[in-house]
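Hi U.,

Before I forget, here's the chain from the pilot set. I'm dumping it here mostly so it's searchable later in email.
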Amino acid sequence: CFVAGFGAADIVFAIDTSGSMDDEIAAVQDAVPALADELSSAGIDAQFALVDMDDNDDDEAADDGDDDDACPTETSTTEANYVDLDFTSSVSDFTAAIGGMAANDSNVDPYDAIYDVANNSFTSISSTDSKCDHADSLTYRSDAQKFLIVVTDTGDEINNGIGSTAAQAAASAA
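Structure:
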C-alpha cells in the first residue's frame, strides 16, 4: 500500500507503554522512527501520529532525571488512550515524541486503541504546561488513506468481553 505516487497516507502508531513493554520499548523507539524515515525517504506523502496505549499516563515527557520535565499525574482511573502527537510530516518531531515514551506500571487493551482510532475519539488532557496536553482527536487529511499500526506484546488475550472478532471488525472500519 505504501507506494510513491499512490496518494497521501495518514499513519497512526498506537504504542503499548505498559510495564510488560519495558524490555521492548527501546527497540520500538529505534524501529518505528526508522520505518517513518524510510517511508519519507522513499517519497511517500506520509504523515505520522502517535497514540500512547496506556491506562495511567503519568509521565509523557522524556525523563532526564530532572523533575522539570514531568507532566502532572493523570487523576482519572479510567483506562484511556492518548494522542501524544497529532499528524506531522516531520520525522524528527515524530522521533522525538517516540523517544519521550517510557513503559510504566499499567495495563492496556489493544481493542480499545483500535476502537479509539477507528472512532477518532480519545481522552483529552489539559494542563498548565502545553507539552503535557493531549488532543481528543486526530486531524486526518481528507484525501489521505488511513493506516493504523498497533505495537504491543499483548497478543490475543483480549479480556474485555467483546473478543477478537469485534476488534477485527473495528480494525476493518479504520
